[in-house]
Amino acid sequence: MKTARIYQRPKNAMQSGRARTDTWILEFEAERAQEPDPLTGWAGGGDTTNQVRIAFPTLEAAKAHAEREGYAFHIVPAPERKLKLQAYADNFR
């Protein structure tokens, strides 16, 4: 049985916008650790399920898909948004 992780996409740290932060992502967890390739040294493995990401508009839709397909899943809660309210004059105090 595959294990999936359902989480809400975080805000991009490099931009101020909140585009696509309302979508929920279903992502599979790796069944085994990646191993370094003896020739190149790159990490890799035969498990390709960690490359699959499915976006859903709501948490309920993501949970329904996981239950319908028979995946074990856990939900990672979204981090709290912290607002730092300050005035421009605070830079000179």
Shape: flat
Low-confidence stretches: none
The class by helix and strand makeup works out as alpha+beta
Strand content: 25-35%
By DSSP (H or I, 4+ residues per run), the number of helices equals 1
Q: Helicity range of the residues?
A: 10-25%
pLDDT averaged over residues: 90
Query: Which CATH top level class fits?
Result: Alpha Beta
Number of strands: 6
- What's the SSE pattern? EEEEEHE
Kindly report how far apart the N and C termini lie: 58 Å
Major β-sheet strand ordering? 5-2-1-6
Number of individual domains: 1
CATH architecture: 2-Layer Sandwich
**Which sheet architecture does the biggest sheet show?**
4 strands, mixed
Written overview of the protein:
This protein is of the alpha+beta class and 93 residues long. The protein has one domain: Double Stranded RNA Binding Domain. It is built from one helix and six strands; from the N terminus they run βββββαβ. The chain has one helix at residues 59-69; strands at 3-8, 24-28, 35-36, 43-44, 53-56, 72-76. The strands form two sheets. A four-stranded mixed beta sheet has the order 5-2-1-6, with helices on one face. The chain has a two-stranded antiparallel ribbon with strand order 3-4. The longest helix has 11 residues, at 59-69. The N and C termini lie far apart (58 Å).
